[in-house]
Amino acid sequence: MxxxxxxxxxxxxxxxxxxxxxxxxxxxxxxxLLVFSYAATFDLNNIPFVVINEDPGFxxxxxxxxxxGAPAFREVAALPSxxxxxALIDRNDAxxxxxxxxxxxxxxxxxxxxxLQIVIxxxxxxxxxxxxxxxxxxVLGFDAEWVAAHGGASTPAVLxxxxxxxxxxxxxxxxxxxxxxxxxxxxxxxxSGLSVVRERxxxxxxxxxxxxxxxxxxxxxxxxxxxLIGSAEAALIVAVAVFWFGxxxxxxxxxxxxxxxxxxxxxxxxxxxxxxxxxxQQQGLLGAFLFLVxxxxxxxxxxxxxxxxxxVQYVTYVNPMRYLMVILRGTxxxxxxxxxxxxxxxxxxxxxxxxxxxxxxxxxxxxx
Amino acid sequence: MAEPGHPPALRFAxxxxxxGAGARRNAAIRDLTLSIPVGRITGLLGPDAAGKTTLLxxxxxxxxxxxxQVHVLxxxxxxxxxxxxxxxxxxxxxxxxxxDLSVQENLDLYAQLQGLQPAxxxxxYAELLRLTALGPFGARRAGALSGGxxxxxxxxCALLRVPDLLLLDEPTVxxxxxxxxELWTIVADLRNRGVSVLVSTAxxxxxxxxxxxxxxxxxSLLAQGPPEAMAADLAGRCYAVRHAMVDRRTLQQRLLATGxxxxxxxxxxxxxxxxxAGAAPAPSDGEAWQTVPPEFADxxxxxxxxxxxxxxxxxxxxxxxxENDTVLHVAGLNRWFGKFRAVADVSFDVARGEVFGLxxxxxxxxxxxxRMLCGLLxxxxxxxxxxxxxxxxxxxxxxxxxxxxxQKFALYGNLSVAxxxxxxxxxxxxxxxxxxxxxxxxxAEFELGAFMTMNAADIPLGYKQRLAxxCALLHEPPILxxxxxxxxxxxxxRSEFWQRINQYAAAGTTVLITTHFMDEAxxxxxxxxxxxxxxxAAGTPAEVRARAATPELPDPTMEDAFIGLIxxxxxxxxxxx
Amino acid sequence: MNAGRLRGLIRxxxxxxxxxxxxxAIAFVLPxxxxxxxxxxxxxxxxxxxxxxxxxxxxxxxxxxxATLRRSRYFDVHTLPSPAAAQIAMAxxxxxxxxxxxxxxxxxxxxxGPATIGVALNGVDANTARLVQGYLTQxxxxxxxxxxxxxxxxxxxxVGLQTRIWFNPALRSRDYLVPGLIAVIxxxxxxxxxxxxxxxxxxxxxxxxxxxxxxxxxEILFGKLLPYFVLGMGGMALSVxxxxxxxxxxxxxxxxxxxxxxxxxxxxxxxxxxLISSLARNQFVAGQIAIVVTFLPAFILSGFIFDIRSMPxxxxxxxxxxxxxxxxxxxQTLFLAGNxxxxxxxxxxxxxxMAAFFLGVTLWRSHKRLD
Lengths: 368, 577, 371
What we know:
heterotrimer, A: alpha/beta, abc type-2 transporter like fold, C: alpha/beta, 2 domains, 4-stranded mixed sheet, 14 helices, elongated
């Protein structure tokens, strides 16, 4: 036991005594947390638009004013005709153009459909879709006001939309918990993915193999720093998410902690597997990277798994990140407890046990 | 050759050069003034960290001196680096061969870089390939060449355009004796064409091949002159000591403890002793002292020993080994890597308390054999027993009985010396009073006190090697495995290292050691000489030497024996084919 | 610069590339792998969103509304018996939103005043939730328009909103993700290729031998740059071919302009790699820096997925020093909009400036000395 503790202590020292590697563990994750949390948002708050108001009447001015007054919209130009619109949109100076037809007020007063045209830049399809939904909300508001003020058909039914868990649909509430998982994952894979291969390259692995340690003891000692450092880092990032970014954490902390620990075990298992397979640090780094990128993309971090093709969705079942994303968002926003997340825990536990066993077998085979 | 008034090939005037910054700045060269003559071979010798590599890099214009002036071929090294580089040849310690390029492609590249005219190339290639005997390997990738062939190719690349000054940084390290002789033939041939050569080396016997020797220590010039003249100064101070009754290891210990003796080395059947200036030989009972001509190795020890604290070996009570007490048993051992047979039918036994050597050049299969013995590599076929067990399948307990020092420094570089020691102590289950006692022992025995809090990666090479040995010996293993522990270590540290090993062997530890220094064979009780995976010869050093004795060379050195035995082996192979 | 020496270095590098599978893998296998992964794996288009419908009293008034939802390609409609059941289904993530038609729906639509259609969205994934909300509003409008056509009467929506989407009328997210992705991939390739190869020369000791020969530093750097430039352009061509032929992304702009912008960007990426590797003379550190300073920022801060205009000012400023930002903007424009000089020219200018900067600094920082 004392020997095992000494081995674990050695792993910590090897990782933390070096100033550069201490920094790599702490600096980049924190900077990335701040920068990415601010940058990674799908919410639009600065939609530049151009106005072509050919309507001499008052209604045209009203509808334009509604756009100009909306917080997410910013008027960049008012043009007399549609002639210059293409240039502005091409140049990315405007995202959309609002064209109020000559007959707008007249048609409204006459009870005919009043023509209002929106031209939008579709290069970034997601931005376009969101901007369009903002625009249509504004037009619907105008409609309701017009009907109320000037009479007309009363709508037989209205939509009453409530967003659960995230009433203002802030995408930061969605992204920041995801970043907790993302950064924890990257740090853990880097720590464990290079641990065995670094010793192999330095020749110290041989030195370790001729000591009385058994292979499982060596791997257990290698897994421990990843688990402890990963946990500490995750706790820090969760704290920043809650206290700095104000993301609510309404679920059970125990459920979150259990999920994170299970996730760390499976991530470390995979990292050690990569490390046991690699012959050089470069291979280890490339291997870690080739695992990290698809695991992040196919985790539901940025784009929903439900949008992926069926076959790809099946692949995500072996991705520990997939389960962690559900656990994080479930505990942060949906108020989940341990019982609600059982369906996420057992696959993680299974992945953890499987990958650690595989790593031990691989490491032992590599020892020959 | 050097005409009077001709500028020297290389002149250093009060040159200093350091590395690192602030308080941790280490001076590599301190206020050095020297000049290297034109048209001669000058040898550059000195212990580790004496500044040899820094001196060569300064001369090649790769480093800029902090102070002083470096003139190469009459040009200022700071201002005219480009013009100097067009006229010199430089071969760094690890020559920059592109391992995935073929021999011919490497030559083509350096020919183009050095601006050799295409018309001149075929003749030059032919000559260099003939000199280096690399002709048949033109299409082979450099990475697939043996260590000696790589060094020869590196030299050929540095020589494509015959340089005015050739700088060689330890070109013969790790090279087998045959290739070593070939390299020296090429260098001697260059001198005959008027090329000035500056070559650094760790082999003291090579000093005798130089016209002049520069001895550096700690960044300063210790001595310069023709090696014969320097050796002649020691005439009358070197003796071969023999004793009819006492074995030579005990004799060596006894001599080292005698006043007036600077150095005592095992040589042949006796001990070579070097006396301090003015000391007279004082033979005790039964000792036969005979003067011998001094060698450069004696000069080296004499000049450097004075500057070092003298280590007085602790006396150990020799234990008498029981006859036929076999600790290591190897029979019919084979190892294949794919189709390549790295070890072929190797068999030997080692008795308790023996120092057993595995000798051979790089790639001879000694490290592969060694790794199989330690349980780091499975044997393809054959029988293998260490203290009655195969370490690969033995329980962890069996590994407690061995100590292991790897080929290159393999301790945790970013852990401090103390942390390394306590980790390995814990790994072997030491605790309580014994733990403290052993840690104190290691610190005192290996004089590590000054370095305990430093990172292991930052301590001098000689101390790294001591630390590795200390870590392997903490748990007092009955068997010690040492894989080329002395490679890259300077001659003084090597001799000190061997004194320790002899001491532990005398106390009953069995030692298995690999080395490519042929002179170290003398320190072994018994040895096997390996080449291309098979055992060429086995026995005591005297027996192995005797096997190579010929009428022309009645008393061959181990190196002569090695070359002779390989030649005979290859002739045998040819006859069989 | 001496042509003979440069030729020798270039030939050496080319032979090494052809013999060492890792450089070829980075240039060709990596883009293939990433493009397939992203192209198929990443989509922001929500289709077949599972929507629960609770009609407390199904009747002729509620049926047309439910039918409209069923006809939409965006929804998979799950009929649920009660709001409580819908709530449970939502908590279990079986449905991502539900529509609740109360028992008095028929009575209110037929007379007494507007009926309230309850819509509950799972707001965790705010982006998807917003898209779903938009789709539901559309369905609701279609239903109202139909109702009005059948029954006559005044307009429920006085404004007839027409939308025209330029460049990507179907709003296929792949069409904008794939060009951006090419930028991310090229960033990675450029930096990894050079960062690793120069560091390798230091580690294997070949750099010292090169430096002691009459070759100049500029020759060494260009000898590295040119072969990897050709290799990188090969990877770029492969990526563009995949985008056009496999993912059917339209290429509106000219191939020549695309090649010119790519060439400039590749110079920047290679220059960054060279700089990193001449500062970090160790493959491991160089590789890590290459990933951290190039890949992640290119992924998040380049406008590839996230809209730069909506980022806070300090972060918007940071994006201006990212070469990937200019490349992403040019690529998205060249692929989807065509040769819009007003976008492409400033991007080209910025990239040219950066290429000059990185190559210049590398040249200035690299001395032919070891200290």
